[in-house]
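Hey, can you fold this one?
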Amino acid sequence: MRTPQDISHHLSELALLVSVVEAGSFSEAARQNGLSPSAVSRQIGRLERLLEVRLFERSTRQLRLTDSGQDICRHAKQMLSAARAAADSAKRHATTIEGRVRLSAPKAMSLQLVHPHLPALLAEYLGLDLELLVSDQPVDLISGGVDIAIRLGDPPVGVVARPLMELRTLLCASPEYLARHGTPTHPEQLLRHSCLHLGEAPDDDVWSFQSLTGHVAGRVSVQIRGRYASNHSEIRRDAALRGLGIACLPDFTVTRMLADKRLVQVLPDWRLLGRYQGTVWLIYSADRYRTPRVKLMVDVLLKHIGGKPVI
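Sure. Predicted structure:
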């Protein structure tokens, strides 16, 4: 008798055996499986030689299983049932949104761009868990155990990187502040103003500008002054709203305030240069994107954040 390992290479013949029994004839089984009757007969004969038993008692009128054939067909049906259950389970796991997604994003983007869309997502997908890691420092996907990261600046190699948005830094102040102290029309006039800056690095008090109109050539750098500095954009924004000075702010943090005129953009004809702007990337590994929950999160971020116009 052949070894049991040989059987694993003939699962299709066992499935065809069940098909012949359920169809009642070789010809009907051939029709249902897109085969010729002779092809079905050859495969059943091959199975009989493999198992060294006779499966059918054939006559001109009917097709009947032998005792050995009945026993083997019963096991073959169990095999097919298990295979279908495995396929159904795989299909469910391939389409069900469940499990944990770890997302890393900078502080301001986490609160103002990412978080607003997460409660509705959790309400819709009850099997989904989200972990939002808030940090302005780049996070390594592998060592940090992160599924998706939002990152400003050049993305690392070996990952999928999709442009999410273009980030600009704007200068903004309240109408009340500008009414009291005047509105600057050239970067050098900032020397007469209180400027709300980051205060993280030694050169954060040097603001460099490029003219957007073309009327003024080259760049202009100004060493600004101010009594209040903070490395948190919401604090600088609140300080600007309270009339404490002219603040440098990410554009997405002031869209609403500019629209309702609680803040006014200062020096709109000049681009403030610096490291806290440029292309914001959505990065993830190709392998993890195949997971439904990660793909869902990527699609949500691209839909709600990606492609937003820059002010």
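The chain has three domains: 4-95, 99-164+282-304, 169-272. Let me know if you want another pass with a different chain boundary.
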